[in-house]
What we know:
- The complex is a heterodimer.
- Chain A is mainly α.
- Chain A has a single domain (64-286), classed as MetI-like fold (Orthogonal Bundle).
- Chain A has helices at residues 2-6, 8-37, 54-61, 63-97, 101-112, 119-124, 127-130, 135-142, 157-181, 185-193, 198-227, 230-235, 243-252, 256-278, 283-286, and strands spanning 41-42, 47-48.
- A two-stranded antiparallel ribbon of chain A has the order 1-2.
- Chain B has a domain at 63-232: MetI-like (MetI-like fold, Orthogonal Bundle).
- In chain B, helix 3 (65-93) packs antiparallel against helix 8, helix 4 crosses helix 6 and helix 6 crosses helix 8.
- Chain B is globular, with a radius of gyration of 24 Å.
- The model of chain B has no long low-confidence stretch (mean pLDDT 88).
Amino acid sequence: xxxxxxxxxxxxxxxxxxxxxxxxxxxxxxxxxxxxxxxxxxxxxxxxxxxxxxxxxxxxxxxxxxxxxxxxxxxxxxxxxxxxxxxxxxxxxxxxxxxxxxxxxxxxxxxxxxxxxxxxxxxxxxxxxxxxxxxxxxxxxxxxxxxxxxxxxxxxxxxxxxxxxxxxxxxxxxxxxxxxxxxxxxxxxxxxxxxxxxxxxxxxxxxxxxxxxxxxxxxxxxxxxxxxxxxxxxxxxxxxxxxxxxxxxxxxxxxxxxxxxxxxxxxxxxxxxxxxxxxxxxxxxxx
Amino acid sequence: xxxxxxxxxxxxxxxxxxxxxxxxxxxxxxxxxxxxxxxxxxxxxxxxxxxxxxxxxxxxxxxxxxxxxxxxxxxxxxxxxxxxxxxxxxxxxxxxxxxxxxxxxxxxxxxxxxxxxxxxxxxxxxxxxxxxxxxxxxxxxxxxxxxxxxxxxxxxxxxxxxxxxxxxxxxxxxxxxxxxxxxxxxxxxxxxxxxxxxxxxxxxxxxxxxxxxxxxxxxxxxxxxxxxxxxxxxxxxxxxxxxxxxxxxxxxxxxxxxxxxxxxxxxxxxxxxxxxxxx
Lengths: 287, 279
């Protein structure tokens, strides 16, 4: 018994048991369930166990699917590019230009605090800014830049991307800042002594060393945007669609089998994208 | 100190704009929630009043804001405690390699990147098909854990990567049992990070929407209630509610940060003077 308790496998699994149990019941089992239900059929009121490929046939046979997937990739690509540029700039400023550690901590906290507040409220709070009579339009009109209120500010793709950037840039800032803080400062001095300009140091020293942080941030942003349904629904005023909305619309109509089939295709897509990114970074080493 | 380069001022300006971008909208709705009784969802302000806050405290025509707040609060505490306990255990487990640990870690990462609507849909389906009741404290609680546990665990990894095992070896050398080592040596050392894990556990649960959408059952949590309001409420009352819950989140964050600061200060004052040399 004593020897049993000293085996790392036994103690390891005992300690990890609650974690494994939660993930088994609330992650693996549900995903398996979705996979099973995606082969079921549905009537107007209930779902019927079966083995039918009609959900997938319908999904892959419909032009809507491809355009919605394309739209989802578009959101992910644009949001990724903007959050990466913005997040990198912010992290670079915090890590290399703020000199006092107190200020560094304080400003870093200011960037992360919104993460712990409600996403829905942060979306709602764009209404007074972007609305037809909102701050943006009335300012532009009073400056004489436009005579008519711009209609595409709220409830448009522009608003969707803006909200994504607003919500998810800090997922880039935090890991990139974290990696930058581990860069040995003497490397920068060496670059400087060897005659590199600030820009050359940035491109040839800092960016390569920051890659793990960039990868982790990208994984978060891509996963969050690909799986989103609520931001697109709210900020586009239900005028644009992404895969998440396709799923949630089916759920709203109680078409669980067809929602499940779409969900499985989305899951495979996201996992393929993320595992490609994960090959480039060892997350456990970066924490 | 050498003078600041010109790039500093450019980057500082970008940073300031970024902060304005982050906080501006929230500040705007905070101001607009004090609209006069005749005011709308945008500027101009038609007077200043507490009218919309008062409406929140009156009998609601639709929905049940205070009930949903209570549920979200209780659920947040449940998720917080569970996240802290399970993450610490998980963190301890992963310090040694065990059979299947790599696979379990992959699963934790998967939990972080799998779209939340899949968790929501899947947990809902499992509970319905198994004939179990869908309830925020059961299915909703479990669905939220798939989001908070990975964060808690990643924090614990970061903590244990920096943990000096010499303290434990010293305790063992003095004859401490494994449990005594954990209770009197490891836990006190990692205590401040547990405040961080608790903060993640509570706030991520309190604000979670997607994972609770199909798993909360007939009683809404606060984010679900607020989302419901966006479709049928067109008065600043929704801003008043948004402002109140944001203030509540800030209070929670403030309490955690203050607790963190206090423990660190206490530690700096009352901690060991080892390595400081002889005086």
